Amino acid sequence: xxxxxxxxxxxxxxxxxxxxxxxxxxxxxxxxxxxxxxxxxxxxxxxxxxxxxxxxxxxxxxxxxxxxxxxxxxxxxxxxxxxxxxxxxxxxxxxxxxxxxxxxxxxxxxxxxxxxxxxxxxxxxxxxxxxxxxxxxxxxxxxxxxxxxxxxxxxxxxxxxxxxxxxxxxxxxxxxxxxxxxxxxxxxxxxxxxxxxxxxxxxxxxxxxxxxxxxxxxxxxxxxxxxxxxxxxxxxxxxxxxxxxxxxxxxxxxxxxxxxxxxxxxxxxxxxxxxxxxxxxxxxxxxx
Length: 288
What we know:
By secondary structure, the chain is an alpha/beta fold. It has helices at about 60-65, 90-105, 120-130, 165-170, 185-190, 195-210, 215-220, 260-265, 265-285; strands at about 20-25, 30-35, 45, 70-75, 110-115, 135-140, 225-230, 250-255. It has one domain: Alpha/Beta hydrolase fold, catalytic domain (Rossmann fold), CATH 3.40.50.1820. The model is unreliable at about 1-15 (pLDDT under 50).
């Protein structure tokens, strides 16, 4: 595992097209989509984790959108997307809806990036739609439940939701390195989610992981893979990133000084690892 220090940090491209949001109506609930960068550029799809939203990528997007059409979605029941009326938060169902959104946007190929449990939806999309997925990048996505290390936080009951700010911060604290101040905007986003959305999505992710470990799934998928882990992750053992090496050719990188959410803790370091990978596989897709 290597440090990103050898990479030059990317610069923001002043010509990047302004962010454009839209809502796509699907059978079981509307999905909010945000697009940045040149529309003719190779597509980079960003999928957030549970108890989060597409806004978790805000600091990273300007570093990616100079050479890519960056698409972010709010997963069902998160951010500005509707809760699914069928109550299905399972990664395969999330992936099916993501695939439908990309079809509606006219996307034929994309490099898919998943943060945390968003990596399960990304993997499920590659399982379902291999022709759509050019390559996968997973950021602090736990490979198996045996790698989970976060201490149990105080359980919330439906009647207690939403809890006060300090409780939300405590709940979210393992999502960052020790001592990191959980931003107020994240606290407010968490408060805006329903108890059902948070708990059901997390339970569905655990069930997907327990059904089959992620490295085994990715080995079967056979897509180019980049794995990025903060070396101070408090939710998943950072050393468990090595579990993904079972996938031939997998690139595994540790980001020094970052916790579970390097996309917010170290956007330049994260972009410095993502961009070469995305550009390499976008170029191969163009040649193909």
